[in-house]
Amino acid sequence: MTTVTLPAVPPPPESHTGTRRLPLPGDYTVAPGRSLVELTGWYGPLPTLRRRIALADASLTVPDSSEHPSFRFEFDDPHLTARLVSEQVESLAGGRRLQLTGDLDLDGTAFPLLLRLRVVEHADDRLLVVGTATLPYRLLRRATGFRTGRPATRLRLLVAAEFA
């Protein structure tokens, strides 16, 4: 049996100290054309609906103190007019993933939501994230009156955005 010794390669330098993967404190927005939002309806294992949703506005506020950052997404589309505001942001996996707990506001009715984001790229002045949230369609329809027009058991909301 032979033994192979691999050279130790140091990890690439981080733009922040520690495991922080957020930009420097400040307010960041998403430029037009730098985002993607998709709503997919699932009936069991089968997708029954797939539609792109317009992102009217999105912002990220990173505070100076140790408070949690705040994400806000506004969807403005004939099929979905809603606002998602994060109440708590949790950093997972050394900052490579973010878990947003918040409310999806549909026509004045708040529906709890858990959005799991993956940090694709980060720097001192920008943040690129992609993530999904799964919503039980029946509960969402009963609570808010939202309808897709197609049969579904759950909805998946896909969000990709570059905050700069």
TrEMBL record:
Residues 1-21 are annotated as: Disordered. InterPro entries: TTHA0802/YceI-like_sf. This is Lipid/polyisoprenoid-binding YceI-like domain-containing protein.
